[in-house]
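G.,

No rush on this.
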Amino acid sequence: MDIVIGLLIGAAAGTAQLVLLALFTKRVTRGEGRFIAAGLAQWLLPFAALTAVAVFYRAALLYAGIGAAAALILGAVFKTFLKGGRS
């Protein structure tokens, strides 16, 4: 059960971080001025998620980290293929 809980929490945190990272990079490349909040949020999100797991459900900490990393990597690969490669 530790594996499932950790992977779900990690996958949710990793997916949210990927969305915030995409928002941050879009705002920076377009020159919009409101990019600091998105950048700060995507940077602090994994710390908050993993700290919460460590405090409340320590046995799932390893799996939460694995889930977050897997969600970031797989999500980025999926978004790249969905866009049709580099552009």
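When you get to it, here's the other one too:
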Amino acid sequence: MDDAGIRLDVDEHDTPAEVDAAFRTLRRVAVWHFVLFLAAVLGVPALSLTLGWWSGARIDGGMSPGFAMAAFGLYVFFLAVGLAAATLSSAVEARMLGGAHDDTTEAGTEDTP
């Protein structure tokens, strides 16, 4: 691994305000993905109760649409939601935290009275 491109002289730190903002953003992302997950989990039985064809119709293999959704569709949906949540959370964290902050001022640029 080539470490020539890594600058060790720059101090990386995050301010409490940056960490708080990132936490609030990640919490909002998590809550919305949980709401989406909960809507899908509760939606399958709700469709069975409200739509007669959801349980009565037959598709390939003699499965009802509700069974096919519970057996296969929900797992694909859970995978998609999990990947979306992980990707978005990683992107938010990478964008909001870990930036290089150079607190030193260059010589001669300070305003002196």
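The chain has three helices and no strands. Residues 104-108 have pLDDT under 50 and may be disordered.

Enjoy the weekend,
O.
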